[in-house]
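G., the chain you wanted modeled:
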Amino acid sequence: MILKKLAVRFIKAYKYISPLFGSKCRYYPTCSTYALWEFENDNFFKAFFKSLFRILRCNQLFPGGIDYPIVKKNLNPVYGKKIKIKYWYVPLDKKRFYIIKAKNE
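Predicted structure as tokens:
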């Protein structure tokens, strides 16, 4: 849990200073956003390796494009509660979902 929080803080700090270097990511969402979503929705080791492989693919040898994170989750319905939605989970199959950021209002 501590490693996960540390990683999220590091990524948020990087996202704060990264506009100084210009936009160089070949994917949407950017590699730092992808890593942030992974760390918020998956365990530390899976998120670390998925983010690492994504960063290694972000070069001229790969075409780039749209690449949303995929996580395995067991989702339970919530009835009668008002909840704030941070991410949409779009089904890929029965246990795997694409993560898409919900609009902040």
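Residues 59 and 81 are 44 Å apart (CA to CA).

Shout if anything looks off.
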